[in-house]
Amino acid sequence: MTHDDVTPAGRPEPAALLAAGRAHLGLELGSTRIKAALVDDAGAVLASGSHAWENQLIDDSWTYSLADVRTGIQDCYADLAREVRTRHGVELTQLASLGISAMMHGYLPFAADGTPLAEFRTWRNTYTTEAAAELSEALGVNIPLRWSIAHLLHALRRGEEHVREIAQLTTLAGYVHRELTGRSVLGVGDASGMFPIAASGDRFDADLLERFAALDGVAEMPWSLPEVLPEVLLAGQDAGTLTAEGAALLDPTGALRPGAIAAPPEGDAGTGMVATHAIAPRTGNVSAGTSAFAMVVLEGPLSGPREEIDMVTTPAGDPVAMIHTNNCTGELDAWVGVFGRFAELLGRPLGAEELYGLLLGAGAEGEADAGGVLSYNYLSGEHQTAVPSGRPLLVREQGARLTLENLFRAQLHGAFGALAVGIEALLHDEGVQLDVMYAHGGIFRTAGVAQQVLADALGTPVAVGESAGEGGAWGMALLAAFAAHRAGTAHPAADGHAAPRQDHAAALGRFLAEQVFAAEALHTLAPQEAGAAGHARWLAAYRAALPVERLAGELLE
């Protein structure tokens, strides 16, 4: 490498690095967009790409077609490749590593020849209530409605013919990874949303697998669950390489060559933890988008199973309490759209950044309890608050003060309302200790507004970093870079066996701390007494009026 190929900070020039095939790709299939991020060894973004898509309600099931999955990742990759050419003047032909992430959980069953046996059933479907309850009782752990095992038992109990033919069961990330590498594997974080993980943090729980096998009707199947579930891997373990067929799928132009190291595929919760550097005990992160979830890395076990709390893991296998909500910013976005249209009618159209900045800024000036204005952002059902079928609802107390400021304060509270209910169970009822909550997602781009509301709602400091807007694709790219780093680094495995899980966790922590986040500036806001008290009043009214929201779901189409 010549001196001209090196930046003043000692990093290779992007064009030289890209031409040498040393960049790392993260691809994440989210609920409304497929996003790609291309980074160097330290996580600096070299290029990005995206593709918009939407789920469909077909036969009472929320789904995305697998044809749309394939065309979507191709379009997203093509968008990224165009940016590489435009920004750096080189053709993207080789990657050092890549990783796939996607919406967690759901149901994707396949026959022995790889044929899909049912439509992809996403996390958004809530018809697995009875199956999840049966599993929670039989296994002695909380099994959420969206977990793969709940979907499997639901299909079995309904007598769906395809269940007998299942040879593989995986998640969306696992499916795309298999198409690109030929390997049926899954990162432990995503796997923990299929079936409970053992206390060792590196495999499915063998005792609970036996309990599942003993359920009525399961023994009659021509398969056993361990046979159809993917192999569980920790961050940095060997998950295969990009095959020639995979390269052709990702880039039908033929420019991309095979051979890139593949990271274990992960769920969007795991990539959110990595993107916010929240993988150590007593840290947590909130990811806010179409849905929202909070992840808190635990120091020890909880008192027992709770319906509000999912037990999952970090990508390195450490135990995590997850508070998941089906709804977050959708209703707020709709109200912003209404005022955006009003601005157009006034002859002064506003860009999205300015529009959100003005309206969220107004919300920051609202009364701490939103003046008695309540917002339910339930575009779909919400299990945290026992709402089976959601209807967005704006309702006011009799003496409420409806102002623009209070309207958007209520929208901000509403975006995190169900999340606050779940977090209360974790931090207050369970007494879990949390030093800081890291936040990421588009709602935090307006500096300090949603961040302060969330800090007041959770009663804990909330930190937003410079990388908070990068999102899950960037987090997956970091895991891909870590996989390449581990592949080229000597670590304890001299006897031919995988290194202990704790070694992987420590190595991932060092990699993120030393190579990615060492120089990142964090902006942290602590809860404010008046804001926290106002939110508590608002949340009490929100809880009290939940029967109105449930009734709206019963009466309105």
Automatic annotation (TrEMBL):
Residues 25-249 form the Carbohydrate kinase FGGY N-terminal domain. The keyword rRNA-binding does not apply. Gene3D superfamilies: 3.30.420.40. Pfam families: FGGY_C, FGGY_N. InterPro entries: ATPase_NBD, FGGY_C, FGGY_Carb_Kinase, FGGY_N. Keywords: Carbohydrate metabolism, Kinase, Transferase, Xylose metabolism. Residues 285-484 form the Carbohydrate kinase FGGY C-terminal domain. It comes from the Bacteria. GO terms for biological process: D-xylose metabolic process. SUPFAM superfamilies: Actin-like ATPase domain. GO terms for molecular function: kinase activity. Belongs to the FGGY kinase family. This is ATPase. It comes from Brachybacterium saurashtrense.
